[in-house]
Specification:
186 residues; 5-stranded parallel β-sheet; alpha/beta; 7 helices; globular
C-alpha cells in the first residue's frame, strides 16, 4: 500500500491511496468549530474515496423542523450514525465530521465501529494559535449557521477531553497534515 503524497496545491492524488485496501474503516473527526475539521475531513474523504458525513447540516435541518434545545444535537449525531452504518455495510469507509464534544457523542462512533466490525480512527483537530482560531471563527459568514467566537469559547469550556487512541492535529502548524493522517488511517 502506498500513502497519499501531496500533489500540486497541497492536494492528494486519490489514486495514491487505495481506499479499502485493508477493508472499510470509520474515521471520526473531533474538535471545536473553526479549527479546520471540515476542511481536513473533506480532504480525507476525497483521498479515501469515502463519503463525508457532517453532523452540523443535519442539526440545522432538524432545527428548521422545530427540534430545538439539546434534542437536535444528539438526534443529528444519531442520524449521521445511522447513515454511516448503511455506508459501512456497503463496504465503504466513512468520514464523520463533527465537534464530538462529549463522551456520549463519541461513544456512538465506538459502538458503531464495533457493531460494523470495522476499525475506528479518531482525529482530534485543534488550532494551537488562539488568535488564528478566533480569526477563522470570526471570518465565517455571520448568517447564524456558524457559532460566534463567544459561543465557541462556551463550547471549549464544555468540551470533555478525549480518552483513548487518536491522532491530534494542530491546524496552526504550517505543515500539511494530510500525509500523516493517511498514514495513521492505514
Amino acid at each position: 500500500m502506498t500513502s497519499g503524497v501531496p500533489g500540486p496545491g497541497g492536494t492528494v492524488d486519490p489514486g495514491a491511496v487505495r481506499a479499502g485496501a485493508d477493508g472499510p474503516l470509520l474515521v471520526a473527526f473531533a474538535g471545536l468549530p473553526g479549527v479546520g475539521k471540515s476542511t481536513l475531513a473533506a480532504r480525507v474523504g476525497t483521498a479515501l474515496g469515502a463519503p463525508v458525513l457532517p453532523v452540523d447540516p443535519v442539526e440545522r435541518a432538524l432545527g428548521r423542523y422545530g427540534l430545538v434545545g439539546d434534542v437536535p444535537g444528539m438526534a443529528a449525531y444519531g442520524a449521521v450514525a445511522g447513515l454511516a452504518e448503511v455506508q459501512l455495510k456497503l463496504g465503504l469507509s466513512v468520514v464523520v465530521d463533527a465537534v464530538n464534544p462529549v463522551a456520549s457523542a463519541r461513544g456512538l462512533w465506538h459502538d458503531l465501529a464495533e457493531r460494523a466490525g470495522v476499525p475506528l480512527r479518531v482525529i482530534e483537530v485543534h488550532c494551537g494559535d488562539e488568535a488564528e482560531h478566533r480569526r477563522r471563527v470570526e471570518a465565517r459568514l455571520p448568517d447564524g449557521e456558524f457559532p460566534t467566537w463567544e459561543q465557541t469559547l462556551v463550547r471549549r469550556a464544555e468540551y470533555e477531553p478525549i480518552i483513548g487512541p487518536r491522532l491530534v492535529v494542530d491546524s496552526a502548524v504550517a505543515i500539511d497534515p494530510l500525509p500523516a493522517i493517511l498514514t495513521y488511517l492505514h
